[in-house]
Amino acid sequence: MSEKNTPADHDFPPYHFRCPISMELMKDPVTISTGVTYERNNIEKWFFSYKKKTCPATMQSLENFDMIPNHTLKRLIVAWQTEEDAQNVICSTSSTPRPSAKHDEIQALLNTIMSSPFKVNSIKKLRSIIDIDDEMKNDFIRSNGVEVLVQILDQILLESSDFTTFRACEEALCILHQLPISGEGKTFKLLSKQESTRSMTVMLQRGSTEARLHTITIFKKMAKTEYDWSFVIQDQGIDFFKSLLELLSDEICSKASSCALKVLIEILTASKKNKLRAIEAGAVCVLVELLPDSNRSKCEKMLHVIKLLCECSEGRQALVEHSMGIVAVSKNMLHVSNAATKIGVKIIWLICNFHPTERVLEEMLICGSVKKLLALLQMDSRSSTKDKVVKIFKMHGNSWKRYPCFPWDLKDYLDL
């Protein structure tokens, strides 16, 4: 059943603090000409890297691409973060890092790993040291440990690789997934090499449950950087998306499922070609079937992915052809959260705007979509969501008003 009231939900960032593109907490919010606020890096990538000329949230065509810093929102976000930030601030009093207490042992294990064909036990011992604290991780990185483990990853691509090599690769991922990954860091540069990403996609498809979790955790960290996924997708095709969707369906490991969602959002935002690959891999079907039993945060992200896919005609077709497609989206409106409602309305708006067949419109009425839209229409506050609802009724109200269950008192209000 649903986990909508999980204990961890209380500290989930409020919807208006999250970027509509990535659904992550904004650090540098900027507002564009449509009045929608985004994380600066995300909207800059949308405009200048992906060459888009629309507002991602409203899909309005734009002529003005100015970005105005939203200082008020930033102050609110900072205030919300104060307690967490206070706990996480780490003050460093020394500019020159000193070797850790386990430095000699780390060096000895790295030397053994490089020289011995039997690497698994040494990597396990190294892992037990790295698990102690951040000091050990930093010492490991300074000792060129990442280079050693990445070489092990690359061995899995050789034709001579065997079970022992595969196990060593899995153990290496146990360490690598714990390390910080930033766009300018050495760890990122090594893991983003073509050989390394190809090795990790192999582990994503064939590794153990633990290895797959560690791999998708690394991919999630890479997704937060400026990493270009085009090589991975060109190299792996729809198999890469099938691996992500398989993780998304994993009922045992919710963390792996959450990471897969975040990676999907980043990849699908990048280009239409990526969306088409995901649709071909069966993404719409998988998401629709997972929606009913998802908790709040996962439900919002799944709806966000469906919205991205429905920006393509193939995605809209897949949604309306699924017997539970429109039902699953509509059920979450006014039921899960304001964010889920807002995204759900965007999906319905895309369907009504680009795929308004008579059968689809009738299904919306039967399954309760129209009832939910009417409830939103009668809310007092003005919003972009309510504006979309009004447009939906202006487009298709004349079709729905033929049915006896349509409220006639709204006919004049909608100019039907």
Automatic annotation (TrEMBL):
Keywords: Transferase, Ubl conjugation pathway. One of its GO terms (molecular function) is ubiquitin protein ligase activity. One of its GO terms (biological process) is protein ubiquitination. The keyword Transferase applies. SUPFAM superfamilies: ARM repeat, RING/U-box. CDD domains: RING-Ubox_PUB. Residues 12-87 form the U-box domain. Its EC number is 2.3.2.27. Pfam families: ARM_PUB (PF25598), U-box (PF04564). It is an enzyme of class 2 (transferase). It catalyses: S-ubiquitinyl-[E2 ubiquitin-conjugating enzyme]-L-cysteine + [acceptor protein]-L-lysine = [E2 ubiquitin-conjugating enzyme]-L-cysteine + N(6)-ubiquitinyl-[acceptor protein]-L-lysine. Coiled coil: none annotated. InterPro entries: ARM-like (IPR011989), ARM-type_fold (IPR016024), ARM_PUB (IPR058678), PUB22/23/24-like (IPR045185), RING-Ubox_PUB (IPR045210), Ubox_domain (IPR003613), Znf_RING/FYVE/PHD (IPR013083). Pathway: Protein modification; protein ubiquitination. PANTHER family: U-BOX DOMAIN-CONTAINING PROTEIN (PTHR22849:SF23), WDSAM1 PROTEIN (PTHR22849). Functions as an E3 ubiquitin ligase. This is U-box domain-containing protein. It comes from Malus domestica.
